[in-house]
Amino acid sequence: MDIYCHEHHNMIRESVREFAEKEIKPRATELDRKEEFSIELTRRMGDLGLFGMIVPTKYGGQGFDILSYIIAVEELARVDGSHAATLAAHNSLGIGPILKFGTREQKEKYLPQLCTGDALWAFGLTETEAGSDSRGSKTTAKLEKSQWVINGSKIFITNGSSPITAGVTVQLISDVHKDGRKEISTILVERDTPGFSSMTMHGKMMWRASDTAQLFFDDCRVPRKNMLGKRGNGSKIMLSTLDSGRLSIAAMGLGCAQGAYELALNYSKERKQFGRAISKFQAIAFKLADMATKIELARNLLYKACWLKQKRKPFGKEAAMAKLYCSEIAKEVADEAVQIHGGYGLMQEYDVERFYRDQRLLQIGEGTSEIQRLVISRYILK
Amino acid sequence: MSIKILVCITHVPDTTSKISFTDSDTKFDKNGVQYIIGPYDDYALARAVEIKESGGASITVLNVGLAETEPTIRKALAIGADEAIRVNAEPVDSFFVATQIAEVAKEGNYDMILMGRESIDFNSGVVHGMVGEMLGLPSFSPVMKLELNGEEVSMTREIEGGKDHLKAKLPIVAGCQEPIAEWRIPNMRGIMTARTKPLNVKEPVSVEQHVKTEKFELPPPKGQCKLVDPEHPEELIKLLQNEAKVL
Hints:
The complex is a heterodimer.
Chain A: H1 7-34, H2 39-48, H3 66-77, H4 81-101, H5 104-114, E1 120-124, E2 140-144, E3 147-158, E4 165-176, E5 182-190, E6 196-200, E7 212-223, E8 227-228, H6 234-270, E9 272-273, E10 276-277, H7 282-310, H8 316-341, H9 351-358, H10 369-380
Parallel strand pairs in A: 1-4
Antiparallel strand pairs in A: 2-3, 3-7, 4-5, 5-8, 6-7, 9-10
Chain B: E1 3-8, E2 11-13, E3 21-22, E4 27-28, E5 35-37, H1 39-55, E6 57-65, H2 70-79, E7 83-88, H3 94-108, E8 112-116, H4 127-135, E9 139-149, E10 152-159, E11 162-169, E12 172-176, H5 188-194, E13 199-202, H6 233-243
């Protein structure tokens, strides 16, 4: 990967891998089983400097390029999807829109705290009746004197109710034009604002150690200056956020595939049947060859998309392709990894079982595989 | 009091590397090998950074090696060293390396010269002793605890059957091992700042080579391991009698 990676990228990979192996891996199974969000590990990720990696140093970030951040997500996902999700959602969906569209005052107020690991920020988009069709959103904000009064609810919001969640960016309808068109905007809501509440969602099959929430707004009043970006630009902000977010979901797919592949590779060398390691059988060796090939392709595609973004070239199509491909191969590789493990792959004490569950969100979250294909087809059929 | 610490690091194969040789088994095959800071050197560096953080110190990291070692040196800078020196030479043997370190140390006037108790490639474990001798400084190894109080250093050394508690006046040379400090993973800010910290390259002084490599050999492969059910210790007795023939 020397085409895209410099010395500091390799160093970041080594550091995050060492951290994930030493600090997250020993606790991942237990946290997953208990469905428990770890404040301690989140803060440790903050200590390592993983929050705000692409935020300029003047706002408390690290000032790295996008590929550095993507490698960090990939390396966490190689060990545990839940912690990669906490990091990716916070950086891409929490910090990302504030960094890109916030006023100087908003950036100075929120970003330094959000770069430490002591506080998380969420992005509230999905509603019970508005998933892929985000314009079906029913949450509203009305301007009364100098305050926005918000009413509505959101669902499936990562980092929305953790003990260290500091607030959320909400996409909502701020007005309806005379011709019936909705004016979509985004507004920042701090956690302690009266009328705002959140509830942790339990019973997930995947990312069980990450925080997923329902958000409720009941005459929730925030100052007028909490509007993020220009009024009426909510769809633009959301689409831009999702373009970047797709890269981090792709990194999660790539890391998940890499982790599952390595588990299968190691297991196949140890597991003996008919007097020899199962890796010696062509049926297994060919599976491993296919897995490695898919991972190599996925990495090339994702890093290319990062390179385009870094060079300020259009990257929307490639981001959608990377999200689609990396999440799809995560499914395929995790499935084959379980197959190679045989009956043991179905048991919770084997990590591959967790990888098999964790990959399933990746083809759904931040734009389903079907929506990615729609996005790609629109680019190529222009 | 701010002191000057020189930390000498080795650039060695990762402990999980597959070891093989080239050139009629006279050279280590570097192909595909991942390199790391010597683990014992890493502990020495971590202790130096702790001293820097608690009372103030400037840390220079030193490696004797060719340009290929620079990513390893940058990692040491990311962990917390302030500047680095690379002596541009293949580290052919312990005497050669010790001579290069001593030359750098003479110019730098350091209060402490720390390194691992041994490298993990050739494991000779003599460089710290040689450096101390060349500079006329006391050297201690393997040091598992090191506390600084003004100009006095208190150390705990691991010895056969016990521990040795020592005190010495600066300057000293020490070969370190765990648990002298908490292992450090470079954080993102460290990696960012390491990119611009000075890494100076010096040419080596001429040294007569004392060691010539005739041939490397791998140790014989480990034998098959047999597991005995703890419920049936008599099976172990049978194996020791009939197969191992040691009873």
